[in-house]
C-alpha cells in the first residue's frame, strides 16, 4: 500500500498541474485509461522524503459530476412525454410567493385542466396542505431525510413522487421546488420549462448575485408588485441586471396577493408558445 | 491560469470551512455534489486506494470550491463502497467564464457573470467556457518503493 505525504495536502496550490485542455473530449464518452505518469508526488509536495517513494497512478475519468442526476432526469422526461404531460419547475428564494401563486393558479386553472403538483419541502406538509381543495393531485416530497435535509429537489426525488400522481390523466405538472436561490438551478428534474418567482422585496441586484438560477429560467415572475408603492425597488435596474445574465428572458409582473398578472401566467402555463415573446417550446 | 483549492477536511483548508453550517442549507448542495463525485470515483477506482481527486468546475457554476473541499470527507465517510476514498484529497480546478463575441469575434474572460464582450460591449456573445462540471481524473496509490 502506498504512502501519502501527510502534509502535502493542506495547502491550496498556486502551482496547478495544468490539465492542458479545459474541454471534455469531444465524443463525450467517459473513459478510463490508467497510465503511469509524472505524478509520483502530488503537486505542492516539497522536500525530499527519503526512504519512500510514493507510487501513484493517474486515472483519467472525464465524467460529468451530475451525470447520474441527468440520466434520471431524462428518464423522468421520457415518462412525462409518454404521458403527454407538460412539466414546469417553479423555483425561487424562500418566501418569494411560490405557494401563494400556485394557489391562485389552481383556483383559475384546475376547473379546466388536469393539474398535478409536486411539492418540495424540507420538513413539513404545510405548503401541500395550502394547495388542498382545488381539485389538483398533490404529491409531497420531503427532502429532509438523509443528511441534514437537501436544499433542492433532484431527479431521483421527482422519480419517487411519480407513482403517487395519475400521470396519464394529467395535462400539466407544476413542481414547487425548495425555496433556495442557489441549489435547485443545478439539478435538472426532467422539466420542460423553468419558471422563477422573484419578489420585489428581494432587491434588484439579485440576478448578479445568483446568476445561475436567473440564467436557467425560461420565465421570471416578478411577484409582490402590490408592495411597490412602499419600496424603492428600481424595476429598470432589475431588468438590466436580469438581461446581463439572461438576455431577453421573458418577464411577467404579478401579484399573487391582488391577482395582477396571474391570468397572463396561466396563459403561459397553458401555452408557452402563445405567450408573448416565449421561446420555442421544446416539443 | 487556474485557481485550485485543495485540502482534507482536517487540514487548515478544511478548518477554514468549518464556519460553514453544513446542515443549515447553504453547504448541503456542495455535499450532494461531493456524494456524486464519490460515487463516480469509487466506481472507477475498483478497489484501488485513491489519494487525490481532480474536479474541473466552471465559474458560472454556483459551487464554492472551498466548500466542496470541506464537504469531501463528510460525503464519503459514511458511504458504502467508498472506503477506497478514505484520506483522499479533493483538488478543484476553477475555469473562468469566457465568451466569444458574435459581432467582433473577440474572446473575453469574465470577471463578473455578465455576458458581455469586453471589446465592443455587446451582449451578443457565445458562452465558450464557465459551465464545466467534471470529474477529470484521480490518483491511486501503488505500492511504495524503498528508495
Ligand atoms: N404582499 C404580498 N405578499 C405576498 C405575495 N405573494 C406571497 N406573499 C406573501 O409572502 C409570504 C411567503 O409566501 P409563500 O407563498 O409561502 O412563499 P413560498 O415561495 O412558497 O415560500 P417557501 O415555500 O417557504 O420557499 C406569505 O406571507 C405570502 O402571503 C404578493 O404578491 N404580495
Ligand atoms: Mg412554498
Ligand atoms: Zn465584441
Automatic annotation (TrEMBL), chain A:
Ranges of compositional bias, category Polar residues: 8-29
InterPro entries in UniProt: CobW/HypB/UreG_nucleotide-bd, Hyd_mat_HypB, P-loop_NTPase
Compositionally biased spans, kind Basic and acidic residues: 30-40
Molecular function (Gene Ontology), one example: GTPase activity
GO biological process: protein maturation
CobW/HypB/UreG nucleotide-binding domain residues: 87-251
Pfam annotation, one family: cobW
Family: Belongs to the SIMIBI class G3E GTPase family. HypB/HupM subfamily.
Protein name per the record: Hydrogenase accessory protein HypB
From TrEMBL, chain B:
Alphabetized GO MF terms: nickel cation binding; zinc ion binding
Residues given in the record as Ni(2+) binding sites: 29
Annotated InterPro entries: HypA/HybF (IPR000688)
Entry-linked Gene3D superfamilies: 3.30.2320.80
Pfam families assigned: HypA
Chain sites annotated for binding Zn(2+): 101, 104, 117, 120
Keyword Metal-binding: yes
Source species, domain of life: Bacteria
Keyword set includes Transcription: no
Swiss-Prot/TrEMBL keywords: Metal-binding, Nickel, Zinc
Example GO biological process: protein maturation
Primary role: Involved in the maturation of [NiFe] hydrogenases. Required for nickel insertion into the metal center of the hydrogenase.
Family membership: Belongs to the HypA/HybF family.
Protein's name according to its UniProt entry: Hydrogenase maturation factor HypA
Organism: Frankia torreyi
Gene label: hypA
Amino acid at each position: 500500500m502506498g504512502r501519502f505525504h501527510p502534509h502535502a495536502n493542506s495547502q491550496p496550490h498556486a502551482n496547478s498541474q495544468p490539465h492542458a485542455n479545459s474541454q471534455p473530449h469531444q465524443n463525450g464518452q467517459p473513459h478510463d485509461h490508467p497510465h503511469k505518469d509524472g505524478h509520483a508526488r502530488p503537486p505542492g509536495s516539497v522536500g525530499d522524503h527519503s526512504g519512500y517513494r510514493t507510487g501513484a497512478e493517474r486515472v483519467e475519468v472525464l465524467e460529468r459530476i451530475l451525470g447520474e442526476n441527468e440520466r434520471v432526469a431524462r428518464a423522468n422526461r421520457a415518462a412525462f412525454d409518454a404521458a403527454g404531460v407538460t412539466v414546469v419547475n417553479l423555483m425561487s428564494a424562500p418566501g418569494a410567493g411560490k405557494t401563494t401563486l400556485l394557489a391562485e393558479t389552481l383556483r383559475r386553472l384546475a376547473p379546466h385542466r388536469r393539474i398535478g403538483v409536486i411539492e418540495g419541502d424540507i420538513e413539513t406538509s404545510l405548503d401541500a396542505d395550502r394547495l388542498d381543495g382545488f381539485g389538483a393531485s398533490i404529491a409531497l416530497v420531503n427532502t429532509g431525510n438523509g443528511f441534514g435535509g437537501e436544499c433542492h429537489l433532484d431527479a431521483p426525488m421527482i422519480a419517487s413522487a411519480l407513482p403517487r400522481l395519475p400521470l396519464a390523466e394529467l395535462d400539466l405538472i407544476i413542481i414547487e421546488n425548495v425555496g433556495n436561490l442557489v441549489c435547485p438551478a443545478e439539478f435538472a428534474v426532467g422539466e420542460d420549462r423553468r419558471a422563477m418567482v422573484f419578489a420585489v422585496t428581494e432587491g434588484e441586484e439579485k440576478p448578479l448575485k445568483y446568476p445561475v438560477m436567473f440564467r436557467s429560467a425560461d420565465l421570471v415572475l416578478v411577484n409582490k408588485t402590490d408592495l411597490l408603492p412602499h419600496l424603492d425597488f428600481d424595476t429598470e435596474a432589475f431588468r438590466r441586471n436580469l438581461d446581463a445574465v439572461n438576455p431577453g428572458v421573458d418577464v411577467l409582473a404579478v401579484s399573487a396577493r391582488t391577482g395582477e398578472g396571474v391570468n397572463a401566467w396561466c396563459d403561459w402555463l397553458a401555452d408557452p408558445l402563445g405567450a408573448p415573446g416565449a421561446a420555442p417550446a421544446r416539443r | 491560469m487556474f485557481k485550485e483549492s485543495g485540502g482534507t477536511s482536517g487540514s487548515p483548508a478544511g478548518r477554514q470551512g468549518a464556519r460553514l453550517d453544513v446542515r443549515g442549507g447553504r453547504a448541503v448542495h456542495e455535499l450532494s455534489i461531493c456524494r456524486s463525485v464519490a460515487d463516480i470515483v469509487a466506481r472507477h477506482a475498483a478497489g484501488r486506494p485513491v489519494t487525490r481527486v481532480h474536479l474541473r468546475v466552471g465559474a458560472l457554476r454556483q459551487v464554492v470550491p472551498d466548500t466542496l473541499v470541506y464537504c469531501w470527507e463528510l460525503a464519503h465517510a459514511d458511504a458504502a463502497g467508498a472506503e477506497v476514498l478514505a484520506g483522499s484529497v479533493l483538488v478543484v480546478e476553477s475555469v473562468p467564464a469566457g465568451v466569444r463575441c458574435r459581432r467582433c469575434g473577440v474572446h473575453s474572460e469574465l470577471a463578473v457573470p455578465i455576458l458581455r464582450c469586453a471589446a465592443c460591449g455587446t451582449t451578443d456573445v457565445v458562452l465558450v467556457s464557465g459551465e464545466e462540471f467534471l470529474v477529470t481524473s484521480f490518483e491511486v496509490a501503488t505500492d511504495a518503493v524503498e528508495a
